[in-house]
Amino acid sequence: MRFRSDFPLHRPELLDTLRRGDALLAGAMSKDCKRFNKGDEIIRTGEPCDTIYRLESGWVARTRLLDDGRRSIIAVFIPGELFGVKSFLLTEQPDSVQSLSNAAVETIQHDRLRELFRAEPDVALRLAFQLGEDERRLHNYVISLGRANAAERIAMMLLEVHGRLSRAGLAANDRYFCPMTQQDMADFVGLTLVHVNRVLRRLREDGLVTISRGTVQIHDIDRLHRLAQPVLDIFERSRPEFRDHASIC
Amino acid sequence: MRFRSDFPLHRPELLDTLRRGDALLAGAMSKDCKRFNKGDEIIRTGEPCDTIYRLESGWVARTRLLDDGRRSIIAVFIPGELFGVKSFLLTEQPDSVQSLSNAAVETIQHDRLRELFRAEPDVALRLAFQLGEDERRLHNYVISLGRANAAERIAMMLLEVHGRLSRAGLAANDRYFCPMTQQDMADFVGLTLVHVNRVLRRLREDGLVTISRGTVQIHDIDRLHRLAQPVLDIFERSRPEFRDHASIC
DNA sequence: CGTCGGCTTGAGGGAAATCAAACGATGTGG
DNA sequence: CCACATCGTTTGATTTCCCTCAAGCCGACG
Predict the structure, then answer these.
(1) The pTM is what?
(2) A35 touches strand D (CB under 7 A)
(3) Are A187 and B90 in contact (CB < 8 Å)?
(4) What is the pLDDT of residues A191-239, one digit of tens each?
């Protein structure tokens, strides 16, 4: 996965630096690669952690399991993204990161990263960029969880993931692979499996999206977009117009 | 507001550096101070922004107003905290920041901050720390919004704010000032004003908390804690034990 | 004294949860 | 190759938590 960002939102003057930082980081990490199976825990709750990860292939999710069995997916990561960056600041991880599919990750230890930092400030920018993007997405999910109904939440999730995958070159023709089960989606958008299923049926019947054995096919992106509209941020909103530019990078 | 962090969660070896970074940053910012009234917008949605803020006094909130009138509070900030840090990476702000009370903020421009960075790497750590803390809290709120019921959400909000204010030296005897209206709280925890009111009545009747004219008085922090327990992260959970250490700093 | 913002309470309705069961694909072992 | 277990999906019936609508209340302030 090469680094891409065709999002006009980011300060364009930083793009070259970002690319360079990403390449340097990827180079430094590539030696140390690990594979995980679906369901494996990559980072465990409560354990100390001195590693930062970069997802090479597959999907992983930051999850938290409550005592009474409730489960929550806080964020999902797709190939090319960094995760565990927060461990730079915290001694323990408050939640776990687990594979949603088979996945390959590259790693780097904190101390090595710190060296790299000093030599190459661009790497720091790449990390800051990841934190910033994570936060932006998190903000959107907070809005969604706090104020959107079930259909809006699901539409927004499907679109948000679609956008990211497109920019990473992992989606074409409004179709993409998504290894999340309906239970995963429910845990992500704060609903129950049963209700997610009902909403997905609705979206299918209305000709907006069909999801079948891990493949999401968006039939009517405009209507899906209109559905999610109220809870999209200013950047996501303008997406359809420059969807075509998404692969220039 | 001086910088404090008695949270055992943060890598202790960083604390001195953090303090230093905070002092340097505060020094650099103090020249340029602005005042706002309750309800004022400090940062406006969609506008470009080249400034980073530090809250000197009062409360502010990151909010988003949806087209159809729904409103959401994404995060609240208390004195000593930095906000608008993300503007370092984004050209436009996706949401607005508004005063929940009269507030005084210090500011610094991006370019000056960048200079400061180069001369003093500790300042970068202070900024990263703020981003990390913001993200940790955001994660907790995502859990809360996604999986907690009304009472749990409200209990967790009251405790979370209590913890932060205590650490900042702005709360004593489990009592603190909170300028949020019930509508603000509703927008923050994803409920309606009416329902927030009912839950608060319940908590009052059960002898857990009373809120009266902007003052929150926690009567039974242990039970409140037990109520919120399922949705507290590993750090917040251990709080009661070292509540007393909170003011050593 | 009236009005305005914020708080309080009631009645009724609706969106999503819960409980329960069946179905379909995939894989496995006898 | 079929019996069977497993995992994820689908659907129905019922319940509940929270929302909506509506109105009254209280304190602050001009």
Answers:
(1) 0.90
(2) no
(3) no
(4) 999 999 999 999 999 999 999 989 999 999 999 999 999 999 888 787 6
Please list every residue in chain B whose beta carbon sits closer than 8 Å to the beta carbon of residue A131.
128, 131-132, 135
Total residues found in chain B within this entry = 249
A67, pLDDT greater than 80: yes
The minimal CB distance from A138 to the residues B90, B135, B230 is found for B135
The alpha-helical segments, DSSP class H, found in chain B are: 15-29, 110-119, 121-147, 150-167, 182-189, 193-205, 221-228, 234-237, 239-242
Cβ-in-10-Å burial (0-12, 13-18, 19+) of B209 comes to buried
pLDDT given for residue B247 in this prediction: 32
Measured CA B133 to C1' C4 distance, in angstroms: 39
Contacts of A67 in chain B (CB under 8 A): 229-230
Side chain identity at residue B162, one-letter code: H
Across A58-196, the runs of DSSP E, i.e. the strands, are 60-65, 71-77, 82-83, 96-99, 103-109, 175-177
Q: Is the CB of A198 under 7 A from strand D?
A: yes
Band the pLDDT of A48: cuts 50, 70, 90.
Answer: confident
CB B56 within 8 A of CB B69: no
Residues A71-114: pLDDT tens digits?
Answer: 999 999 999 999 988 777 777 778 899 999 999 999 999 888 88
Considering only CB atoms, which chain A residues are within 8 Å of B45?
A: 234
The distance (Å) linking the CA of A38 with the C1' of D3 is 28
